[in-house]
Amino acid sequence: MKICLDAGHGTGQNQSPARCGYFEGDRMFTLQRLLQQELEAYGVTVVCTRAARQDDPPLYTRALAAKDCDLFLSLHSNAAGNGVCESVDYPVVFYPVSGKGIGLAAELAECIHKTMGTLQPAQTRVRWNSAHNADYYGSPGYGKTTIREDTFQMKKFLSLLDKNKRFFLLTLLVGIVYSAISVAIPTISGRLITSVVADSANRTRLLCIFLLISFFQLCFAELDEYMGNTLKIRQKKQMRRNAFHAFSAQDSAKREDISAFVSFVNNDIPSVAEQYVLGTIDMIKCMSILTFSALSLLYIHWVLALVIVGVSLLIVALPNTMRKRGVAAFRIYYKQGKG
User: Does this model's pTM top 0.85?
Assistant: First the structure.
């Protein structure tokens, strides 16, 4: 058996409001060493995320250390006590957002509760990341799960859309038109102001064009919001229908499997619908705005247009290059929802 021990935080971090000399980062490093010694005495292979007390690796690096491990234990102590917060005295064990391992988490939490004699009963929870599309630590391996970066594959994405392909393309078209109008408005209004100041004969014609495009912008803004919300609802309904069909086709389901499926339907499917489907549309709309802006600057100077294009490429490419965490929801859907 192989276990990864993760001592939370770093040295000198998270000082206790109840005890001035207590720092969570230092105490958890000590606990990590003690647990390592005990586990190795039982013949368990132990991997530690902090080799030295001063180490404080980022979340993804901590999760990556658990690759090919059977269990990932991140050690924290957040209760206060001593008159600061006496109502918090219980152990809580977090399990993957997929629901896998909830039984083990409950047993471990209960064991800690009995050993420490806490005032409140043990608890189990899940913890999402800030985007609510994966575990807080990215994708810590559980049960020989290999951590990897999910790549955006168009074939899988089109398969994900299923019957909503046409509606997705229509929503995307509306978004691009709305982006083009949004870029055209400031350009036309700028020329209109210039013509008014210069007392040009074209000011009446420019004013009519400006009012007409402003009306179209208002219409497409409402239509863009309506189409996006409708697509999100349709996509969630379709994915849940596919997931229920795949799950009902199983011969039997254990309590742990049912719990994982409920968590998957209520949390992962909405995350996929919003982060991947609507997120893809938002990304293309952003690129469209930058591209249209570059085109509108061509009449001023080609260097300005080139700068805008370069910035747009960095906005899309740089975060994907620097991103160091897997996105679990998309992978879970193809594993559970598609059967």
Answer: no
User: What DSSP string runs through 115-127?
Assistant: HHT-SSPPEEE--
CA dihedral 197, 200, 204, 206 (to 10 degrees): -80
- Residue 7 pairs in a beta bridge with 75
Token pair recorded at residue 10: 């770093």
- DSSP lists the bridge partners of residue 123 as 92
For CA atoms 325, 331, 332, 333, the dihedral sign is positive
Cα separation, 118 vs 99, in Å, equals 25
Phi, psi (deg, nearest 5) at residue 60: -65, -40
Instruction: Report, in angstroms and rounded to the nearest whole number, the Rg of the chain calculated over CA atoms.
Output: 27
Burial (Cβ within 10 Å: 0-12, 13-18, ≥19) of residue 304:
middle
For residue 261, what are its two tokens? Answer: 């499926």
Which residue, chain included where needed, has tokens 């039984």?
A: 103
> Minimal CA–CA distance to 3: which of 78, 79, 72?
72
Q: Could you give the CA distance from residue 328 to residue 319 in angstroms, rounded to a whole number?
A: 18
Helix (H) or strand (E) holding 216: helix 203-248
Cα–Cα nearest to 147, from 260, 47, 269, 64: 64
Rounded-to-integer distance, Cα 279 and Cα 25, Å: 36
HSE-up (13 A, CA, CB side) for residue 173:
6
Q: What is the maximum span of the chain, computed from C-alpha positions, in angstroms? A: 91
Using one digit for the tens of pLDDT, what is the confidence trace for 215-267?
Answer: 888 999 999 999 999 998 998 888 888 777 766 665 555 554 565 566 666 66
Q: What is the C-alpha separation between 323 and 57, in angstroms, rounded? A: 15
What is the number of alpha carbons within 13 Å of residue 8 lying toward its C-beta?
Answer: 14
